[in-house]
Amino acid sequence: MRSYIVKQLHKKFNDCQVKDLMTRYLKKKIERKDLQEVLGIKKTRFFALIKRFKDDPENFSVSYFRSTPTRTISKTIETNIIKELKIEKDLIKAKDVPIRCYNYSYIKDILENDYNQKVSLSTIINRAKAKGFYLSKPKRKVHEKEVITNYPGEMIQHDSSHHQFSKYANKWYLITSLDDYSRLILYACLVERETTWTNIIALKIVILRYGIPYSYYVDSYSVYRFVQGRDSNWRTHYKFTDEADPQWKQVLNDCGVKVKYALSPQAKGKIERPYRWIQDRLVRSCYRKRISDINQAQLVLNSLIQKYNHQWVHSTTGEIPYIRFQRALKENKSLFREFAVRPPYKSIKDIFCLRADRMVNSYRKVSINNLELKVPSAPLHERIQLRIVPDEESGLSEVRFWHEDELLGSQKVKNSDLNLVQL
Predict the structure, then answer these.
(1) Do 230 and 172 touch, CB atoms closer than 8 A?
(2) Residue 230 CB contacts under 8 Å (≥ 6 apart), including other chains
(3) CATH superfamily of 156-330
(4) pLDDT digit string (tens) for 309-335?
(5) Alpha-carbon dihedral angle through residues 333, 337, 338, 344, given to the nearest 10 degrees
(6) Cα distance between the two ends of the chain
(7) How far is the C-alpha of 20 from the C-alpha of 35, rounded, in Å?
(8) What pTM did the predictor assign?
């Protein structure tokens, strides 16, 4: 308390002014209460100052001197801060890696988690500025931060990005699905090559785990939407946008899910913000751990998703995504529907699959990518549908033959023999 009072006097009066007031009081030219009010101090502190003045009037001063040293950090902490800042600087300089500025919050977490050292963010920033590890962040275009849905499952935002997430590896794709209402990330997976099938797998995992949502929200990437002119060729030039549904959308059609398209990159702002958070920390973590294997990077990604979903308070909702999501479910405020295979289909393999229509020839065979498959029960010269379920682990695909809502049979075929572009 004393330090506070003296510090305030020092800001309002100089030594000569206070000495003059004290002298006038001792000569009874000014009342104590009046002087206390002028100085802005209470009775106890007033008499303490009077005593100090009477004991040594010549050396009396109200200049502020700390009775205790300022808070300092240990040499070890200082060393670790500089060490991590140097790593950040090297990462910023690395070509092709999508990092352009320092992340002091990330360093704060690194110090706490890896070194068991708690340091304030302001301390790290001050050290960064003093040591030359500071870059002003570029101004970003402002997106309106709002929740435009009222229920979990009302709209799932789905997207992918292609970056060099590790300096020690080639570029990977990050496929992510996010519930708009809760901001809970439902799916996040790194793949070396993005295909229609990798996006169908994302649908399968989300729907089987959480249920069938009301709608999906995507951009106009060719996996999600056929656009006349961009995606047409000499065989399909007569089709207009949305007249030809891509394989990914056909899966959602079978599940009864609406698909909405973003009309501009800016409209995808809500999922891009979590992307930036995840991408930024994924890149920094992979760099520090010198990760070159995509499976190891996926483990890092899983840890980040766990932290984002269960620990971080979202800046827009003001809530932790998982808690917001679960509370809505308990209150029965959800548009997720229970998944069930609807007739005539027999299995989830008939829903989450690639599709192709083929004509049966006179030998009851169909041809796909120069591979002939015999279908003994198929009607001659009729079109049948092939529903194909690839398995990358075994290297085999199950081809299921359908005609007029009837399953004609199935066969196992090598993925390499099918030569599916979508796989």
Answers:
(1) no
(2) 222
(3) Ribonuclease H-like superfamily/Ribonuclease H (3.30.420.10)
(4) 999 888 888 899 999 999 999 999 999
(5) 170
(6) 72
(7) 11
(8) 0.75
